[in-house]
Specification:
alpha/beta; six-stranded mixed sheet; five-stranded parallel sheet; 14 strands; 13% strand; globular
Length: 524
Protein backbone atom coordinates (compact mmCIF):
# COMPACT_ATOMS: atom_id res chain seq x y z
CA UNK A 1 0.00 0.00 0.00
CA UNK A 2 2.78 2.48 0.84
CA UNK A 3 4.37 1.81 -2.53
CA UNK A 4 1.07 2.64 -4.19
CA UNK A 5 0.66 5.82 -2.16
CA UNK A 6 4.17 6.83 -3.20
CA UNK A 7 2.90 7.11 -6.77
CA UNK A 8 0.75 10.07 -5.68
CA UNK A 9 3.82 12.11 -4.63
CA UNK A 10 5.82 14.48 -6.86
CA UNK A 11 8.95 16.02 -5.30
CA UNK A 12 11.10 19.01 -6.22
CA UNK A 13 14.67 18.59 -7.43
CA UNK A 14 17.36 20.54 -9.25
CA UNK A 15 17.89 19.91 -12.92
CA UNK A 16 21.63 20.07 -12.24
CA UNK A 17 23.54 16.83 -11.72
CA UNK A 18 25.53 17.77 -8.63
CA UNK A 19 24.30 18.78 -5.18
CA UNK A 20 26.55 21.84 -5.00
CA UNK A 21 24.72 23.28 -8.02
CA UNK A 22 21.32 23.35 -6.34
CA UNK A 23 19.83 26.84 -6.39
CA UNK A 24 17.26 26.21 -3.66
CA UNK A 25 18.70 23.59 -1.27
CA UNK A 26 15.89 24.02 1.25
CA UNK A 27 13.40 22.69 -1.32
CA UNK A 28 15.55 20.52 -3.58
CA UNK A 29 16.53 17.05 -2.45
CA UNK A 30 20.12 15.88 -2.44
CA UNK A 31 21.07 13.13 -4.86
CA UNK A 32 21.11 10.60 -2.02
CA UNK A 33 17.64 11.64 -0.81
CA UNK A 34 16.23 11.67 -4.30
CA UNK A 35 17.59 8.22 -5.16
CA UNK A 36 16.13 6.84 -1.92
CA UNK A 37 12.72 8.41 -2.54
CA UNK A 38 12.55 7.04 -6.08
CA UNK A 39 13.91 3.56 -5.33
CA UNK A 40 12.37 2.92 -1.90
CA UNK A 41 9.36 5.23 -1.56
CA UNK A 42 8.43 4.74 -5.24
CA UNK A 43 7.40 8.36 -5.67
CA UNK A 44 5.48 9.05 -8.84
CA UNK A 45 7.34 12.02 -10.26
CA UNK A 46 9.79 14.88 -9.99
CA UNK A 47 9.41 18.59 -10.78
CA UNK A 48 12.67 20.11 -11.99
CA UNK A 49 14.13 23.61 -12.10
CA UNK A 50 17.51 24.88 -13.23
CA UNK A 51 20.30 23.62 -15.55
CA UNK A 52 20.99 23.86 -19.22
CA UNK A 53 18.71 21.92 -21.51
CA UNK A 54 21.60 19.62 -22.37
CA UNK A 55 22.39 18.86 -18.71
CA UNK A 56 18.71 18.34 -17.99
CA UNK A 57 18.53 15.48 -20.48
CA UNK A 58 21.28 13.67 -18.53
CA UNK A 59 19.50 14.40 -15.24
CA UNK A 60 16.26 12.90 -16.53
CA UNK A 61 18.05 9.75 -17.69
CA UNK A 62 19.55 9.45 -14.21
CA UNK A 63 16.17 9.83 -12.49
CA UNK A 64 14.33 7.46 -14.79
CA UNK A 65 17.13 4.92 -14.34
CA UNK A 66 16.40 4.77 -10.61
CA UNK A 67 12.65 4.29 -11.02
CA UNK A 68 10.78 0.99 -10.88
CA UNK A 69 7.78 2.74 -12.45
CA UNK A 70 8.50 5.42 -15.07
CA UNK A 71 8.38 8.90 -13.56
CA UNK A 72 6.33 11.91 -14.44
CA UNK A 73 8.91 14.64 -15.11
CA UNK A 74 7.26 18.02 -14.63
CA UNK A 75 8.38 21.62 -15.07
CA UNK A 76 6.82 25.07 -14.73
CA UNK A 77 7.53 26.03 -18.34
CA UNK A 78 4.71 28.50 -18.93
CA UNK A 79 7.02 30.53 -21.20
CA UNK A 80 8.72 27.65 -22.98
CA UNK A 81 11.47 25.27 -21.96
CA UNK A 82 14.05 28.07 -22.13
CA UNK A 83 12.31 29.90 -19.29
CA UNK A 84 13.77 27.33 -16.87
CA UNK A 85 16.48 25.54 -18.84
CA UNK A 86 19.15 27.47 -20.74
CA UNK A 87 19.54 26.93 -24.45
CA UNK A 88 15.95 26.07 -25.28
CA UNK A 89 13.31 28.51 -26.56
CA UNK A 90 12.17 31.21 -24.14
CA UNK A 91 8.85 32.77 -25.12
CA UNK A 92 7.39 36.09 -23.96
CA UNK A 93 4.82 35.61 -21.19
CA UNK A 94 1.26 34.64 -22.18
CA UNK A 95 -0.09 38.16 -21.64
CA UNK A 96 1.95 39.25 -24.67
CA UNK A 97 -0.26 37.02 -26.79
CA UNK A 98 -3.33 38.50 -25.08
CA UNK A 99 -2.11 41.94 -26.22
CA UNK A 100 -2.05 40.66 -29.81
CA UNK A 101 -5.58 39.31 -29.35
CA UNK A 102 -6.89 42.84 -28.78
CA UNK A 103 -6.32 43.62 -32.45
CA UNK A 104 -6.09 40.22 -34.11
CA UNK A 105 -7.54 37.24 -32.23
CA UNK A 106 -6.85 34.68 -35.00
CA UNK A 107 -3.18 35.70 -35.05
CA UNK A 108 -3.01 35.45 -31.26
CA UNK A 109 -4.53 31.96 -31.37
CA UNK A 110 -1.98 30.97 -34.00
CA UNK A 111 0.87 32.11 -31.78
CA UNK A 112 -0.61 30.31 -28.75
CA UNK A 113 -0.82 27.07 -30.74
CA UNK A 114 2.77 27.50 -31.93
CA UNK A 115 3.89 28.20 -28.38
CA UNK A 116 2.19 25.00 -27.19
CA UNK A 117 3.63 22.89 -29.99
CA UNK A 118 7.19 24.19 -29.65
CA UNK A 119 7.10 23.87 -25.86
CA UNK A 120 5.86 20.27 -26.14
CA UNK A 121 8.45 19.31 -28.75
CA UNK A 122 11.37 20.80 -26.83
CA UNK A 123 10.15 19.44 -23.48
CA UNK A 124 9.98 15.90 -24.81
CA UNK A 125 13.39 16.31 -26.43
CA UNK A 126 15.02 16.79 -23.02
CA UNK A 127 12.81 14.32 -21.13
CA UNK A 128 10.07 16.51 -19.63
CA UNK A 129 6.69 14.83 -20.04
CA UNK A 130 4.42 17.10 -17.99
CA UNK A 131 4.07 20.76 -18.89
CA UNK A 132 2.65 22.62 -15.88
CA UNK A 133 0.83 25.05 -18.17
CA UNK A 134 -1.26 26.76 -19.40
CA UNK A 135 -2.17 29.29 -16.74
CA UNK A 136 -5.92 29.84 -17.18
CA UNK A 137 -6.37 32.36 -14.39
CA UNK A 138 -8.12 35.57 -15.48
CA UNK A 139 -5.81 38.36 -14.35
CA UNK A 140 -8.44 41.05 -13.78
CA UNK A 141 -6.62 42.52 -10.76
CA UNK A 142 -3.79 44.83 -11.87
CA UNK A 143 -2.19 44.52 -8.42
CA UNK A 144 -1.89 40.73 -8.62
CA UNK A 145 1.75 40.08 -7.65
CA UNK A 146 2.00 36.45 -8.71
CA UNK A 147 -0.21 35.74 -11.76
CA UNK A 148 0.09 39.01 -13.67
CA UNK A 149 1.73 38.50 -17.09
CA UNK A 150 1.58 34.71 -16.64
CA UNK A 151 -2.12 34.90 -17.57
CA UNK A 152 -3.49 34.78 -21.11
CA UNK A 153 -5.43 37.95 -20.46
CA UNK A 154 -7.96 39.86 -18.40
CA UNK A 155 -11.24 38.43 -19.69
CA UNK A 156 -12.55 34.87 -19.47
CA UNK A 157 -13.34 34.86 -23.19
CA UNK A 158 -9.80 35.67 -24.33
CA UNK A 159 -8.16 33.42 -21.72
CA UNK A 160 -10.41 30.55 -22.79
CA UNK A 161 -9.57 30.91 -26.46
CA UNK A 162 -5.82 31.31 -26.02
CA UNK A 163 -5.47 28.55 -23.42
CA UNK A 164 -7.46 26.25 -25.70
CA UNK A 165 -5.12 27.08 -28.60
CA UNK A 166 -2.05 26.36 -26.43
CA UNK A 167 -3.47 22.97 -25.42
CA UNK A 168 -4.32 22.16 -29.03
CA UNK A 169 -0.73 22.92 -30.00
CA UNK A 170 0.57 20.28 -27.58
CA UNK A 171 -1.83 17.53 -28.55
CA UNK A 172 0.13 15.92 -31.40
CA UNK A 173 2.82 15.10 -28.82
CA UNK A 174 2.88 12.42 -26.07
CA UNK A 175 2.97 14.93 -23.24
CA UNK A 176 0.69 16.13 -20.42
CA UNK A 177 -0.64 19.65 -19.85
CA UNK A 178 -2.02 21.29 -16.70
CA UNK A 179 -4.62 24.05 -16.39
CA UNK A 180 -3.94 26.15 -13.32
CA UNK A 181 -4.74 27.43 -10.70
CA UNK A 182 -8.23 26.08 -9.95
CA UNK A 183 -10.67 27.66 -9.43
CA UNK A 184 -8.90 30.93 -10.39
CA UNK A 185 -6.06 32.96 -8.84
CA UNK A 186 -6.32 36.03 -11.09
CA UNK A 187 -8.33 38.37 -8.87
CA UNK A 188 -6.12 38.46 -5.78
CA UNK A 189 -3.59 40.97 -4.49
CA UNK A 190 -2.01 38.33 -2.23
CA UNK A 191 0.69 35.87 -3.31
CA UNK A 192 -0.28 32.37 -2.18
CA UNK A 193 3.41 31.51 -1.93
CA UNK A 194 3.43 33.75 1.14
CA UNK A 195 -0.11 33.82 2.59
CA UNK A 196 -3.62 32.50 1.94
CA UNK A 197 -5.59 34.79 -0.39
CA UNK A 198 -9.35 35.13 0.09
CA UNK A 199 -11.63 35.36 -2.94
CA UNK A 200 -14.78 37.03 -1.56
CA UNK A 201 -16.94 36.87 -4.70
CA UNK A 202 -20.46 35.55 -5.12
CA UNK A 203 -21.21 32.23 -6.77
CA UNK A 204 -22.62 33.98 -9.85
CA UNK A 205 -19.44 36.04 -10.29
CA UNK A 206 -17.20 32.95 -9.91
CA UNK A 207 -19.32 31.05 -12.42
CA UNK A 208 -19.11 33.93 -14.92
CA UNK A 209 -15.41 34.86 -14.65
CA UNK A 210 -13.21 32.30 -12.89
CA UNK A 211 -14.67 28.97 -14.09
CA UNK A 212 -15.18 29.40 -17.88
CA UNK A 213 -11.47 29.11 -18.80
CA UNK A 214 -11.23 25.85 -16.85
CA UNK A 215 -14.34 24.56 -18.59
CA UNK A 216 -12.77 25.50 -21.93
CA UNK A 217 -9.49 23.79 -21.05
CA UNK A 218 -11.32 20.63 -20.01
CA UNK A 219 -13.31 20.66 -23.25
CA UNK A 220 -10.01 21.04 -25.14
CA UNK A 221 -8.65 17.88 -23.49
CA UNK A 222 -6.29 19.23 -20.84
CA UNK A 223 -4.66 16.33 -18.98
CA UNK A 224 -4.57 17.73 -15.46
CA UNK A 225 -5.79 20.61 -13.34
CA UNK A 226 -3.68 22.22 -10.61
CA UNK A 227 -5.34 23.59 -7.50
CA UNK A 228 -4.96 27.08 -6.04
CA UNK A 229 -4.27 27.82 -2.40
CA UNK A 230 -7.28 30.13 -1.99
CA UNK A 231 -10.09 30.50 0.49
CA UNK A 232 -13.44 30.98 -1.25
CA UNK A 233 -16.03 31.51 1.50
CA UNK A 234 -19.10 31.26 -0.73
CA UNK A 235 -18.11 27.71 -1.67
CA UNK A 236 -16.23 26.58 1.43
CA UNK A 237 -15.73 28.88 4.41
CA UNK A 238 -13.45 26.40 6.22
CA UNK A 239 -11.12 24.68 3.78
CA UNK A 240 -8.84 26.29 1.16
CA UNK A 241 -9.50 25.07 -2.38
CA UNK A 242 -6.54 22.65 -2.38
CA UNK A 243 -8.04 20.69 0.51
CA UNK A 244 -11.73 21.39 -0.12
CA UNK A 245 -13.93 18.47 -1.15
CA UNK A 246 -16.70 20.94 -1.99
CA UNK A 247 -14.41 22.62 -4.54
CA UNK A 248 -12.28 19.78 -5.95
CA UNK A 249 -14.98 17.10 -6.01
CA UNK A 250 -18.10 19.26 -6.02
CA UNK A 251 -17.05 21.93 -8.52
CA UNK A 252 -14.24 20.39 -10.57
CA UNK A 253 -15.29 16.74 -10.72
CA UNK A 254 -19.07 16.97 -10.57
CA UNK A 255 -19.98 20.37 -12.03
CA UNK A 256 -17.26 20.62 -14.69
CA UNK A 257 -17.05 16.89 -15.31
CA UNK A 258 -13.26 16.63 -15.09
CA UNK A 259 -12.15 12.99 -14.74
CA UNK A 260 -8.38 13.23 -15.22
CA UNK A 261 -5.56 14.18 -12.85
CA UNK A 262 -5.99 16.76 -10.11
CA UNK A 263 -2.64 17.95 -8.75
CA UNK A 264 -2.16 20.25 -5.80
CA UNK A 265 -0.05 23.35 -6.06
CA UNK A 266 3.14 23.00 -4.01
CA UNK A 267 2.41 22.17 -0.38
CA UNK A 268 5.51 24.05 0.79
CA UNK A 269 3.83 27.35 -0.15
CA UNK A 270 2.92 29.67 2.70
CA UNK A 271 -0.70 29.96 1.61
CA UNK A 272 -1.37 26.32 2.55
CA UNK A 273 1.56 25.32 4.78
CA UNK A 274 0.19 27.49 7.58
CA UNK A 275 -3.20 25.76 7.47
CA UNK A 276 -2.19 22.37 8.87
CA UNK A 277 0.87 20.19 9.48
CA UNK A 278 2.43 18.53 6.41
CA UNK A 279 1.00 15.06 6.97
CA UNK A 280 -2.50 16.36 7.57
CA UNK A 281 -2.32 18.51 4.43
CA UNK A 282 -1.56 15.45 2.32
CA UNK A 283 -4.48 13.57 3.85
CA UNK A 284 -6.87 16.49 3.41
CA UNK A 285 -5.86 16.95 -0.23
CA UNK A 286 -6.38 13.29 -1.13
CA UNK A 287 -9.67 13.20 0.77
CA UNK A 288 -10.82 16.33 -1.08
CA UNK A 289 -10.20 14.74 -4.47
CA UNK A 290 -6.57 15.42 -5.41
CA UNK A 291 -4.67 12.61 -7.15
CA UNK A 292 -1.14 14.00 -6.86
CA UNK A 293 0.52 15.78 -3.96
CA UNK A 294 3.06 18.28 -5.29
CA UNK A 295 6.14 19.14 -3.26
CA UNK A 296 5.23 18.01 0.24
CA UNK A 297 7.90 19.18 2.71
CA UNK A 298 8.79 15.54 3.43
CA UNK A 299 7.44 12.82 1.11
CA UNK A 300 7.93 10.08 3.70
CA UNK A 301 5.76 12.00 6.20
CA UNK A 302 3.08 12.47 3.53
CA UNK A 303 3.07 8.79 2.58
CA UNK A 304 2.86 7.64 6.21
CA UNK A 305 0.02 10.06 6.96
CA UNK A 306 -2.04 8.95 3.94
CA UNK A 307 -1.30 5.29 4.76
CA UNK A 308 -2.53 5.78 8.33
CA UNK A 309 -5.66 7.51 7.01
CA UNK A 310 -6.41 4.51 4.79
CA UNK A 311 -5.79 2.07 7.64
CA UNK A 312 -8.14 4.00 9.91
CA UNK A 313 -10.85 4.25 7.24
CA UNK A 314 -10.60 8.02 6.94
CA UNK A 315 -9.66 7.54 3.26
CA UNK A 316 -11.04 4.51 1.45
CA UNK A 317 -8.92 2.00 -0.42
CA UNK A 318 -11.13 2.69 -3.45
CA UNK A 319 -10.26 6.37 -3.29
CA UNK A 320 -6.54 5.58 -3.56
CA UNK A 321 -7.12 3.07 -6.35
CA UNK A 322 -9.06 5.62 -8.38
CA UNK A 323 -6.14 8.05 -8.20
CA UNK A 324 -3.71 5.29 -9.13
CA UNK A 325 -5.81 4.50 -12.20
CA UNK A 326 -5.67 8.12 -13.30
CA UNK A 327 -1.91 8.29 -12.71
CA UNK A 328 -1.32 5.07 -14.64
CA UNK A 329 -3.47 6.33 -17.51
CA UNK A 330 -1.49 9.58 -17.62
CA UNK A 331 1.83 7.74 -17.56
CA UNK A 332 0.72 5.46 -20.37
CA UNK A 333 0.26 8.50 -22.62
CA UNK A 334 3.68 10.07 -22.23
CA UNK A 335 7.27 9.50 -23.29
CA UNK A 336 9.67 8.68 -20.46
CA UNK A 337 13.10 9.47 -21.88
CA UNK A 338 14.88 12.25 -23.77
CA UNK A 339 15.29 11.86 -27.51
CA UNK A 340 18.70 10.85 -28.80
CA UNK A 341 19.01 13.89 -31.07
CA UNK A 342 17.54 16.41 -28.62
CA UNK A 343 19.99 19.20 -29.50
CA UNK A 344 18.65 19.35 -33.05
CA UNK A 345 15.16 20.03 -31.68
CA UNK A 346 15.96 23.03 -29.47
CA UNK A 347 15.71 26.71 -30.43
CA UNK A 348 15.11 26.01 -34.09
CA UNK A 349 14.50 28.85 -36.60
CA UNK A 350 10.74 28.30 -36.54
CA UNK A 351 10.78 28.75 -32.76
CA UNK A 352 12.90 31.88 -32.93
CA UNK A 353 10.56 33.28 -35.57
CA UNK A 354 7.55 32.65 -33.33
CA UNK A 355 9.25 34.44 -30.41
CA UNK A 356 10.19 37.40 -32.58
CA UNK A 357 6.68 37.58 -34.02
CA UNK A 358 5.08 37.66 -30.58
CA UNK A 359 7.54 40.28 -29.34
CA UNK A 360 7.00 42.49 -32.38
CA UNK A 361 3.22 42.20 -32.49
CA UNK A 362 2.80 42.82 -28.74
CA UNK A 363 5.27 45.71 -28.42
CA UNK A 364 3.88 49.10 -27.36
CA UNK A 365 5.88 52.20 -28.14
CA UNK A 366 6.16 55.90 -28.85
CA UNK A 367 9.11 56.71 -31.12
CA UNK A 368 9.07 60.36 -32.14
CA UNK A 369 12.82 59.96 -32.75
CA UNK A 370 15.59 57.48 -32.10
CA UNK A 371 17.59 57.69 -28.89
CA UNK A 372 20.62 59.85 -29.76
CA UNK A 373 24.17 58.58 -29.77
CA UNK A 374 26.47 60.18 -27.16
CA UNK A 375 29.79 58.88 -28.41
CA UNK A 376 31.34 62.15 -29.59
CA UNK A 377 33.94 62.28 -26.79
CA UNK A 378 34.80 60.40 -23.63
CA UNK A 379 33.43 63.07 -21.25
CA UNK A 380 30.08 63.06 -23.08
CA UNK A 381 29.30 59.44 -22.31
CA UNK A 382 25.71 58.71 -21.43
CA UNK A 383 24.31 56.48 -18.73
CA UNK A 384 22.49 53.19 -19.34
CA UNK A 385 20.55 52.97 -16.07
CA UNK A 386 19.09 49.47 -15.65
CA UNK A 387 16.62 49.03 -12.81
CA UNK A 388 15.96 45.48 -11.54
CA UNK A 389 14.20 44.31 -8.37
CA UNK A 390 16.85 41.81 -7.22
CA UNK A 391 20.10 41.58 -9.13
CA UNK A 392 21.10 38.12 -7.94
CA UNK A 393 17.76 36.70 -9.12
CA UNK A 394 17.76 38.52 -12.47
CA UNK A 395 19.02 35.78 -14.78
CA UNK A 396 18.06 37.85 -17.84
CA UNK A 397 20.87 40.38 -17.17
CA UNK A 398 24.57 39.73 -17.82
CA UNK A 399 27.52 41.56 -19.33
CA UNK A 400 26.60 40.27 -22.79
CA UNK A 401 22.86 40.91 -22.51
CA UNK A 402 21.53 43.08 -25.36
CA UNK A 403 20.21 45.60 -22.81
CA UNK A 404 23.88 46.22 -21.96
CA UNK A 405 25.73 45.75 -25.23
CA UNK A 406 23.49 47.64 -27.67
CA UNK A 407 23.35 50.90 -25.65
CA UNK A 408 27.15 50.62 -25.22
CA UNK A 409 27.52 50.92 -28.98
CA UNK A 410 25.90 54.36 -28.73
CA UNK A 411 27.96 55.62 -25.81
CA UNK A 412 25.79 54.64 -22.84
CA UNK A 413 27.80 53.23 -19.95
CA UNK A 414 26.13 50.67 -17.71
CA UNK A 415 24.82 51.58 -14.28
CA UNK A 416 22.91 48.71 -12.73
CA UNK A 417 20.75 49.40 -9.66
CA UNK A 418 18.46 47.34 -7.47
CA UNK A 419 15.23 48.34 -5.80
CA UNK A 420 17.05 48.82 -2.50
CA UNK A 421 20.05 50.70 -3.90
CA UNK A 422 18.51 53.77 -5.51
CA UNK A 423 20.80 56.33 -3.87
CA UNK A 424 23.67 55.11 -6.02
CA UNK A 425 21.90 56.50 -9.08
CA UNK A 426 21.01 59.96 -7.72
CA UNK A 427 22.49 63.28 -8.88
CA UNK A 428 24.08 62.00 -12.06
CA UNK A 429 23.99 64.72 -14.74
CA UNK A 430 24.66 62.45 -17.75
CA UNK A 431 22.13 61.84 -20.53
CA UNK A 432 20.28 58.74 -19.32
CA UNK A 433 18.65 55.76 -20.98
CA UNK A 434 16.36 54.20 -18.34
CA UNK A 435 15.51 50.51 -18.57
CA UNK A 436 13.04 49.08 -16.02
CA UNK A 437 12.60 45.32 -15.54
CA UNK A 438 9.55 44.59 -13.40
CA UNK A 439 6.85 41.93 -13.46
CA UNK A 440 4.83 39.77 -11.13
CA UNK A 441 6.78 36.82 -9.76
CA UNK A 442 6.29 34.30 -6.95
CA UNK A 443 7.52 35.37 -3.51
CA UNK A 444 7.79 39.07 -4.38
CA UNK A 445 4.68 39.81 -2.35
CA UNK A 446 3.56 42.90 -4.25
CA UNK A 447 3.53 44.20 -7.81
CA UNK A 448 3.73 47.82 -6.70
CA UNK A 449 7.06 49.60 -6.55
CA UNK A 450 8.16 51.07 -3.24
CA UNK A 451 7.41 54.74 -2.61
CA UNK A 452 11.15 55.45 -2.91
CA UNK A 453 11.31 53.75 -6.31
CA UNK A 454 8.21 55.56 -7.51
CA UNK A 455 9.65 58.92 -6.44
CA UNK A 456 12.95 58.07 -8.11
CA UNK A 457 11.31 57.19 -11.45
CA UNK A 458 9.03 60.25 -11.38
CA UNK A 459 12.01 62.50 -10.66
CA UNK A 460 13.89 61.05 -13.61
CA UNK A 461 10.89 61.45 -15.91
CA UNK A 462 10.74 65.14 -14.96
CA UNK A 463 14.49 65.77 -14.98
CA UNK A 464 15.01 66.39 -18.69
CA UNK A 465 17.97 63.99 -18.56
CA UNK A 466 16.20 61.02 -20.11
CA UNK A 467 16.95 60.23 -23.74
CA UNK A 468 14.82 57.08 -23.81
CA UNK A 469 12.76 54.71 -21.68
CA UNK A 470 12.34 50.93 -21.97
CA UNK A 471 10.02 48.94 -19.69
CA UNK A 472 10.12 45.14 -19.71
CA UNK A 473 7.55 42.93 -17.99
CA UNK A 474 4.24 44.04 -16.53
CA UNK A 475 2.01 46.29 -18.61
CA UNK A 476 0.60 47.70 -15.38
CA UNK A 477 3.90 49.44 -14.64
CA UNK A 478 3.63 51.23 -17.98
CA UNK A 479 -0.02 52.08 -17.32
CA UNK A 480 0.80 53.61 -13.94
CA UNK A 481 3.55 55.89 -15.32
CA UNK A 482 2.40 56.51 -18.88
CA UNK A 483 0.79 59.91 -18.21
CA UNK A 484 4.06 61.15 -16.71
CA UNK A 485 6.19 60.26 -19.75
CA UNK A 486 7.08 63.38 -21.80
CA UNK A 487 5.42 63.25 -25.20
CA UNK A 488 8.72 63.75 -27.02
CA UNK A 489 10.53 60.98 -25.11
CA UNK A 490 11.09 57.76 -27.09
CA UNK A 491 9.77 54.79 -25.14
CA UNK A 492 9.13 51.09 -25.69
CA UNK A 493 7.29 48.52 -23.62
CA UNK A 494 7.91 44.77 -24.03
CA UNK A 495 6.20 41.97 -22.12
CA UNK A 496 9.35 39.88 -22.41
CA UNK A 497 12.45 40.35 -20.28
CA UNK A 498 14.67 37.73 -21.90
CA UNK A 499 17.57 38.62 -24.24
CA UNK A 500 15.40 38.36 -27.38
CA UNK A 501 13.06 41.01 -25.95
CA UNK A 502 15.97 43.24 -24.98
CA UNK A 503 17.50 42.98 -28.44
CA UNK A 504 14.34 43.79 -30.37
CA UNK A 505 13.48 46.68 -28.02
CA UNK A 506 16.94 48.24 -28.00
CA UNK A 507 17.25 47.91 -31.75
CA UNK A 508 13.93 49.65 -32.20
CA UNK A 509 14.61 52.54 -29.85
CA UNK A 510 18.10 53.19 -31.25
CA UNK A 511 17.15 52.45 -34.84
CA UNK A 512 20.12 50.07 -34.92
CA UNK A 513 20.77 47.03 -37.11
CA UNK A 514 20.72 43.55 -35.61
CA UNK A 515 23.80 42.92 -33.48
CA UNK A 516 26.31 40.29 -34.55
CA UNK A 517 28.39 38.05 -32.33
CA UNK A 518 31.37 40.29 -33.09
CA UNK A 519 29.42 43.34 -31.95
CA UNK A 520 28.66 41.64 -28.64
CA UNK A 521 32.26 40.63 -28.06
CA UNK A 522 33.40 44.22 -28.52
CA UNK A 523 31.29 45.48 -25.63
CA UNK A 524 31.59 42.72 -23.04
Amino acid sequence: MKEQIGQTIVVRASGHLFDRQRRYPMWEATTTQLKNWIENLHIGGVILLGASAAELSLRVQQLQGWAKNPLLIAADIEEGVGQRFEGATWFPPPMAIAQIAKNNLPLAEKYAREMGAITAQEALAVGINWILAPVVDVNNNPYNPVINVRAFGESPEVVSKLATAFIQGTQPYPILTAAKHFPGHGDTATDSHLALPVLPHSDSRLQAVELPPFAAAIAAGVDSVMTAHLLIPVWDAQYPATVSEAILTGKLRQQLGFDKLIVTDALIMGGIAQYADPGELAVLAIAAGADIILMPPDPEVAIEAVYDAVQSGRISQERIELSLQRIAQAKSKVSHSPTSDFLSQLAQPVAEAAVEGILTESMRCNLPANVPSVTSSSHDKGRNLIFVPELLKSDFISLNAPAVTIPAQFGYELQLIELNNLLAADNDPRPTLLQIFWRGNPFRGTLELTSEATTFIKTLLNSGKLTGLLIYGSKYILDWYKELIPTDLPWIFSYGQMPAAQESSCQAIFGSPKSTDTDLQNFV
